[in-house]
Design brief:
This protein is α/β, with parallel strands linked by helices. It is about 40% helix and about 25% strand. The protein is globular and about 85 Å long. The two termini are about 40 Å apart.
């Protein structure tokens, strides 16, 4: 294309190109949606799960491979995650349970994972998320597992000891915290936040809050509500929800360590199918003899299976007995993994596979 003559505004021509491309994009997206509807009809006839983590991983990997720029991969991944969210709604509306209320960290992680076209169901606790999924009242649940500062979360680890729900996906998320208010910073007299948010922003609060009072509340949703309803109040939260659209960010990314990565599990009534790049979570108790834990771990070492995480929690039924939780690379259906798990059982009093799931390739 020749350069436009001097003194000729190029914007109308360029914007016309954008409009023409948008027309093609929308037409293609709706063609794609018609195929999605057919897939949904087939899944409902065969009772296949609507959300398939292994397929999601392959779609996003292909998007990254097809991307020749200039848009970054992260941008296209966000577009496709929202596109897949709309696809779920066309196939069969999904209900995603999380430990509420709305506006907290788990809610933010769920929205980041599943987009805006599914139903979100806040429940009373992490244990309630497992219960909703196990009973079929929710299609999936999202539960916090760990962050890179504090390790495994006890409530989630304990819930795995008494549930039939299984892990089907993992989510790695950087949840940045912001200070939000309906008034200017000079008018703020009180900052409210959940205890976890206060802990993550302790240095910023010490430096910036000055004489302003800092109140802790049960969760970020309550902090946002107070900021929306009370004069002179600002809230620390991962994001504002639609219910608090009067709030605006006064300061962004105020956490002391912006590199903290939080890990969440998506749970379902069954594990994910193999994707080619998977993990398996296993829970076990060992026999009461010296070296029993090392014997279990050596089984996976000798099989060439990489151990990526280990946590322990006391058993609720025995004073000095512990449950161990490990993540290993590979799918439970892999022949090598199956043999290793069978060998590990010989050193355990109990052993349960909590689920196999695609390894999260990126931080959302």
């Amino acid at each position: 294309m020749n350069d436009p003559p001097p003194n000729v505004d190029p914007l109308p021509t360029l914007r016309k190109q954008i409009d023409d491309l948008d027309e093609q994009i929308v037409a293609l997206l709706n063609q794609r949606a018609k195929v999605v509807v057919q897939i949904g009809q087939h899944k409902q006839r065969t009772s296949a799960p609507i959300y398939a983590p292994d397929r999601e991983k392959r779609v996003l990997e292909r998007v990254r491979q097809l991307n020749a720029g200039p848009l970054p991969d992260r941008c296209l991944e966000a577009v496709y995650r929202e596109l897949m969210s709309g696809s779920f709604a066309l196939e069969k509306p999904l209900r995603i349970a999380f430990a509420g209320p709305a506006g907290n960290f788990s809610h933010a992680a769920a929205v980041r994972k599943f987009g805006s076209s599914v139903e979100y169901a806040p429940v009373a606790s992490v244990a309630s998320v497992f219960e909703e999924v196990a009973r079929g009242h929710a299609d999936h649940g999202i539960v916090p597992m760990e962050d890179s500062l504090h390790g495994g979360l006890a409530e989630t680890l304990d819930a795995f000891q008494s549930t039939t729900a299984r892990i089907c996906a993992e989510v790695l998320i950087q949840l940045h915290l912001h200070l939000l208010s309906g008034c200017a910073w000079s008018e703020v007299t009180r900052v409210v936040a959940a205890p976890e948010a206060v802990t993550r922003c302790r240095r910023w609060l010490a430096q910036a809050a000055g004489s302003r009072a800092v109140d802790t509340v049960a969760d970020s949703s309550l902090a946002l509500r107070r900021a929306a309803e009370e004069a002179g109040v600002a809230a620390i939260a991962p994001r504002a929800t639609d219910a608090f659209d009067t709030l605006r960010p006064l300061f962004a990314d105020i956490e002391d360590n912006p590199e903290v990565v939080s890990r969440f599990f998506v749970i379902a009534r069954e594990s994910a199918k193999p994707s080619g790049d998977d993990k398996t979570a296993i829970m076990f108790t060992t026999a009461h003899r010296p070296g029993a834990l090392a014997d279990v771990l050596d089984v996976f070492k000798d099989a060439g299976i990489n151990l990526t995480d280990i946590e322990r929690r006391p058993s609720p039924n025995a004073g000095r007995e512990y449950f161990f939780f490990i993540d290993v690379q590979g799918h439970a259906d892999d022949a090598t993994m199956t043999a290793a798990i069978d060998a590990a059982r010989k050193h355990c009093l109990q052993l349960a596979i909590l689920g196999s799931y695609p390894r999260a390739a990126e931080v959302l």
